[in-house]
Amino acid sequence: MPEVTQQQVEAFLMQVMEIQHEHAHEQKNAKSKRQSKIRECLDKHASGGAG
Amino acid sequence: MLIKNIELNNFRQFYGTEKLEFSTDPKKNVTLIHAENTFGKTTILNAILWAFFEQVTSKFEQPKKIVNFDAQEEGVHSASVSVIFEFKKHTYCIKRTFDDREQGTKKTTLSAHKIVKGNYEALQAAETFVGSVIPKEMAKYFFFDGEAAEAYSSAKNYKDVAVAIRNMLGCFLAERAIDDLKGLTKEINSELGKSSTDDELAKLELELQKTNESIEEYETLKDSTKDEIATYRDQLKGLQEELRQTEGSKDLQRLREAKKQQHVSVSNDIVAGNKEILHWIGNDAVALISEKLATQSLDFIDDASLKGRIPSPYDEDFVSKLLSEQKCVCARELKPGSPEWESVASLLKTATNKEILDRVVRARAHIKMLQDNRKTAPDKLLEAQRRIAEKHGVRDKLEQEIKEIGDTLQGISLDEVDAKERSRDKLEKIINQKHVELGAIRNKITGLKAERDSTDKMIEKKALKNEGSKKLLIRKQMVEQSAAMLKLALSDYEQNARRDIEKKTNSILTTVTHNHRTCRFGENFSIELVKENGVSCPKSSGENQLLSLMFISSLIQFASSRMNEESILLRPGTVAPLILDSPFGKLDTEYQVDAAKYIPTLTPQVVLLVSSSQGNEKVLDAVGSRVGMEYVLVAEYKAPAGRKKETRLVRHGKEIPTAIYSQKNDRTRIERI
Where are the beta strands (DSSP E) in B522-577? Predict the structure, then answer.
């Protein structure tokens, strides 16, 4: 199967952390847009790379 | 951040409006607040914590009752706390209001304003703004209840230490990201199961999900077993130390029993010696006293013997035979009643017999014995006296030794020692058992992980046949790799932070204490006090508080050193006022003074809330040159004083009553000194 590149993972992670900072003041377990944003970001990075 | 002032409105025991201006002078950066217990020290600390985060400490009882009781009786429904502070060269005001007429989350509201040339400009997202000034997770180490400080260094609270380090490291966003990624993996797994028409793939997905759940359960079990082992180990360490302190007590006890036996034996010897002297008085002393009499008696017997008077020259048997035969030795007839018969019969009065002869022999022998005893009697007495004196000496020595052993054993109950030894043995068995359990759990996890990897490969193989599943697999791979990368990075940061904070705590300890003990973080973040020889030693209550205070101090320094942190994984540190409620509670006076000197150097602004027992003269002298503002909390009561004692605070030659009775309201006033 095609491997995910290190760059892809790092770029995705950076964006995940940016989302965390945007939502810095939310409760840890609060269901929010945060999770859906991360999913969108994942889809973007996965399809932009190997997907 | 520097707090300029706070304003309390009908907040708890503060009736009406009370203001408190804090010192912002960098050279006199301490605001000192005196208050006796229950007068409002903890309320001041909690008012600030509540204003920023709607949080309170565990000591703040009945946290939902915010509005002052007297104000409530007068129809007031709300209370508020405003804080005006400087942050990044600007001045801000935040205000939290509580209104008991509102429902649920609406009861409390927060507003934030930027103050520009006296104008209040409202800020949107007040909570977010507050979080950027001082993250909630870090705040509790700045606004700190000193009396609870001990908790950090007590062995069982190692988890709080780890959490504190992580909080000050600012890794809560990265931790939340890991949780989010974990949730995403689950989501993708579930999608994978549904993405194909292949029933077997769905089955494998389900299997994988179950295996993952089992791994999580066993991981939780592993952690709790490790915690249990750590707790048991701490208990064991404590017991071992207690037993070390009583080490030898059993031998000493046995020695004391032996000495007591010896004491009984020697006391018996003394009694026997005294009896010997009594015996001597009865026997040998008679020989001394009756020496003259004995000599005279013997002389008399010997003289009388020589003269034939003792015993009598006539034998009783012989005289009786003459009388019975009625014939004298001269052959004359002895007719009873005749003068001759009477004459011979009269000899019977002085005639001797065998018994008299025996008596004479015995008397002679006895007198002879008395004379012999006379020669040895003084030596016998001296010998008996010498032996008694010697025994007295031995007994005195034994009594001294028994007392000394008793002093050493004082306070040690051997029953308790036995019980502790039994507990220690039991704990060792439990720990061994737990290690066996832990080993089994680890094996189980290894097995489950192998199972998971194998299922994963099978899923991968099957999923690759389907384009949709293939895409999901790639996403899963990305998510898992990202989470692993984050965990690794956090672990590195955490290790470095731990080393840094340990170093800082030790550096502070060196400044504040005079002994050569250092602090060390144990495997599980427990704070240990270590002797010069590297052996960890148990901590007294005072040492626990000191270590905790030093730990908090190092956290604050650490947060300050991270002010300009630029890592995307971590939130930057902060500089905030250190507000300490009862910071010196259980510290020895010596440590109190050193801590009082040190604390003002920790951060640009320090607020110390002290009672009279904490703010003793030495402490106040030590902190005196750094005090920029000083207050006393005065309690007013509606009730008359009755038999209650008047309390006063004496500062700068002035006496200030701190409890006043027969007042209009029950409340606390803030009075500037």
Answer: 527-530, 536-537
Name the one residue in this structure whose structure tokens are 């008694």: B388
For residues B656 and B652, what is the distance between their CA atoms, to the nearest angstrom?
10
Largest CA distance in chain B: 174
pLDDT for the residue B367: 81
pLDDT the model gives residue B148: 67
Q: Dmax over Cα atoms in chain A, in whole Å?
A: 39
Among the partner-chain residues A21, A43, A51, the one whose CB lies closest to the CB of B173 is: A21
How many Cβ atoms sit within 10 Å of the Cβ of residue B252? 18
Output the pLDDT for position A51: 40
d(CA B667, CA B152): 34
Domain boundaries, chain B: 2-134+576-672, 199-246+416-465, 271-311+352-409
Cis peptide leading into residue B311 (ω within 30°): yes
Burial class for B307, CB neighbours closer than 10 Å (0-12, 13-18, 19+): exposed
CB of B539 closer than 8 Å to CB of B517 = no
Give the distance from residue A6's alpha carbon to the nearest chain B alpha carbon, in angstroms.
9
**Does residue B647 contact residue B658 with C-beta atoms inside 8 Å?**
yes
Query: Could you tell me if A38 lies within 8 Å of chain B, comparing CB atoms?
Result: yes
User: Are B14 and B8 a contacting pair, CB within 8 Å?
Assistant: yes
CATH 3.20.20.140 describes domain B2-134+576-672: no
Q: Are B205 and B193 within 8 A, CB to CB?
A: yes
> In B, what residues contact A, Cβ < 8 A?
125, 127-128, 131-132, 172-177, 179-181, 183-184, 187, 460, 464, 470-471, 473-475, 477-479, 481-482, 485-486, 568-569, 571
pLDDT band at A50 (very low <50, low <70, confident <90, very high): very low
* Nearest by Cα to B469 from A51, A36, A12, A38: A51
- Pairing label, strands B2-11, B14-21: antiparallel
Angle (CA) B413 B415 B418, round 5°: 115
Please report the ipTM that was assigned to this predicted complex: 0.92
pLDDT of residue A2: 59
**Secondary-structure percent of chain A, ordered helix, strand, coil, rounded to 5:** 65, 0, 35
Q: Which two tokens stand for residue B368?
A: 């002879």
* Residue A49 pLDDT exceeds 50: no
Q: What is the mean pLDDT of each run of 10 residues along chain B (673 residues)?
A: 95 95 94 89 92 87 90 94 94 95 86 94 88 84 75 64 83 90 88 75 83 91 86 79 74 85 92 88 77 78 68 78 86 85 84 78 82 82 90 93 83 77 90 93 94 86 78 89 93 88 84 74 72 69 76 86 84 86 75 84 89 78 90 92 81 88 92 92
Total length of chain A = 51
